[in-house]
Design goal:
Blueprint (H helix, E strand, L loop, with lengths): L5 H6 L4 E4 L4 H13 L5 E5 L6 H6 L2 E4 L5 H7 L5 E4 L11 H13 L4 E7 L11 H12 L5 E6 L1 E2 L2 H12 L1 E2 L7 E5 L1 H13 L7 E4 L4 E3 H12 L4 E2 L4 H7 L6 H13 L9 H6 L6 H8 L4
Helix pairs in contact: 2-8, 4-5, 5-6, 9-13, 10-11
Length: about 300
């Protein structure tokens, strides 16, 4: 995918601006970008530039820009060919609405040629996930803008399962409150690869993608996979949504947010599986089992 644009880049210097570059997904995106794109074509916009010292030392252009400050965004995004917008993790959802407004207006004013909105697949109109209103509003706000844009929806990230496994082993059970339905996953690393592939290839742009692995899992199947990876027997004993919200309510209100996501799963809204990752990259996303085995320390 990247080689297709090599000749073009030799004649025309592109400018890729990436937001959220020091966050968990943003770090993965930057790792791929640094390997696949010329350093002089990369720019990050970040609220706290002190966190971007390592990128600046590598030759990446660093611009200060807070989502709450439209003027900063406009200045930071000048001459941008492709803007990768990774939203903040602020919740509740209505607190992000000024953010998407500023992002759209600033991108229009800065004349950004193409915007990639990194979204989440729990955005359906009937989805009870508490962040669903933001994702729904953002896609509609982009639709009524003057921007060329691509929406890339991630499935559930598999990465947190690595740090969660010791707790699951100690407790003996997966406790997610999803008794019967399935959930699909993607790793942040695979998401980053797909995002950069779309950023670098105009023929893949102006579409909406949902990034998932090849299959989805019931929580019993997830428990079996985690047992195989860890070498420890892990069963499945789902909590109620209410108990789950109380148990994982740190910081305050986060438990209810998580419970609302699993309520969406109970309605079958997080079981989505697509071929989009393969269409973008030419290969299947790494499987749940393969990813966990590569990253879970067994010694």
């Amino acid at each position: 995918m990247y080689e297709k644009n090599k000749a073009v880049r030799e004649e025309t210097v592109m400018r890729y601006t990436i937001t959220g570059a020091t966050g968990q997904l943003g770090t993965e995106v930057m790792q791929v970008a640094i390997k696949k794109l010329p350093i002089e074509e990369l720019r990050i916009s970040i609220r706290d530039i002190k966190k971007a010292v390592k990128y600046k030392e590598m030759g990446v252009e660093v611009k200060k820009a807070d989502y709450r400050n439209k003027a900063e965004l406009v200045q930071a995004w000048q001459d941008t060919d492709v803007l990768v917008y990774i939203p903040s993790i602020v919740h509740p959802s209505y607190e992000r609405l000024p953010e998407i407004e500023n992002v759209v207006l600033a991108a229009e004013e800065a004349k950004v040629k193409h915007l990639i909105f990194v979204s989440f697949y729990a955005d359906q109109e009937n989805n009870p996930f508490q962040m669903s209103p933001f994702y729904g509003y953002a896609s509609r706000r982009l639709a009524c803008s003057s921007l060329s844009y691509t929406i890339m929806k991630n499935a559930m990230y598999v990465d947190p399962l690595i740090s969660y496994l010791p707790e699951l082993i100690e407790g003996g059970n997966v406790v997610y409150p999803v008794p019967h339905e399935k959930i699909s996953f993607i790793s942040r690393a695979d998401s980053a690869k797909a995002i950069l592939a779309v950023a670098a290839d105009a023929s893949l742009q102006d579409q909406t993608y949902t990034l998932t692995q090849k299959r989805s899992y019931t929580m019993t199947e997830l428990a079996d996979t985690l047992s195989d990876v860890s070498g420890e027997k892990i069963g499945f004993s789902p909590m109620s949504l209410e108990a789950f919200a109380l148990t994982y309510d740190e910081p305050k209100g986060f438990g209810a947010l998580l419970a609302s996501m699993y309520e969406a799963a109970n309605r079958g809204l997080l079981a989505i599986v697509t071929e989009d990752f393969r269409k973008i990259t030419g290969r299947e996303a790494e499987s749940l089992s393969s990813y966990l085995k590569r990253h879970y320390p067994t010694d």
